[in-house]
Amino acid sequence: MITGAQGVRQTRSKTTYEVPQQQQQQSFEWGRTSQRTSHGKPRRGSVMGGTMTTAGADVDMRESYSTYLERSSAADVMTDALPDIDLYDHDNPLAVTQYVNDIYQYWYKVEPDTRVSETYMLIQGDINYKMRAILIDWLVEVHLKFKLMPETLFLTTNLIDRFLELKTVTRRNLQLVGVTAMLVASKYEEIWAPEVRDFVYISDRAYTRQQILEMEKQMLNTLGFHLTVPTPYCFLNRFFKAAGGDRQFQLYASYAVECALPEYGMLKYSGSTLAAAGVYIAIRGLQTGSWNHTMEAHTRLSESEVYPCACDMAELMRKAPTATLTAVYKKYSSEKFMKIATLPVPHDLRL
């Protein structure tokens, strides 16, 4: 499907994946994952919030933080044991502590409208869930090489799934959908986003600049320019704060959640549930505490509700070292990420 450009920047390596098809014996390879050509600087920190308009969004069935406090008080639960996780950020305008609970209430409200069906791949005739996994695995490498923000990777995955749920795509154009989704996500999340020519190069010139721009217009119009969506990363930031996790804790939970990104079967869980499961695995794996009232209040999930997702996620983590697609595992096995992928997975997290 995609061929390499011979003699172009031979000092840079090319990553190739091949998957045999049962019906048609074809293979396809995806291009370089080397550093982008432009000299952009990655943004520091993260930005939370934004606005999104949805028509007729149903309120999420899980109760809000304030409702949880009221119910706990009525049930004689010690609500004073629930700490103010924003206590040290009240003077930080970027933390928007006076609005943060309302923001997350809104995220929970609109989350169902931004999810895709766990069976959406049935409408696709030329691609399947394995090809989706290969695409996202490759984009994890591209994301790392371009030194993009974590938000960009999660938004990219969301855009791909939402687009594929609405439009049928040929296997030849699947990678075009992937690089275009990352281009759009980069423009939305990054201060210095990669340029179109960077994506032309990273895909080994399989697509022209004009093809990427045409796909960008098609994707944005298909999605109604609806880009402000709650991804697992939005919820991870809040749950990290509730759990009081350090950098190792955050990397461990992030690794768990990213292991779920290429897995089509994990679409049955919402982004907030995936984030909660990642934090739950980190709590169990690093033995930093328990799933207490604070975690229940902010995740709106009891331990019994988060446990099935955590078990499925833990199983993906166990298989990661020997899996066919290893981009996430290699990423988190590096010194930059504290070799977090080499830590043991809680052995008792099994269904």
UniProtKB/TrEMBL annotation:
GO molecular function: cyclin-dependent protein serine/threonine kinase regulator activity
Xref: CDD domains: CYCLIN_AtCycB-like_rpt1
Highest taxon of the lineage: Eukaryota
SUPFAM superfamilies hit by this protein: Cyclin-like
Compositional bias ranges of the Polar residues kind: 8-20
Annotated InterPro entries: Cyclin, Cyclin-like_dom, Cyclin-like_sf, Cyclin_A/B-like, Cyclin_C-dom, Cyclin_N
Family: Belongs to the cyclin family. Cyclin AB subfamily.
Protein name: Cyclin B
Gene label: CycB
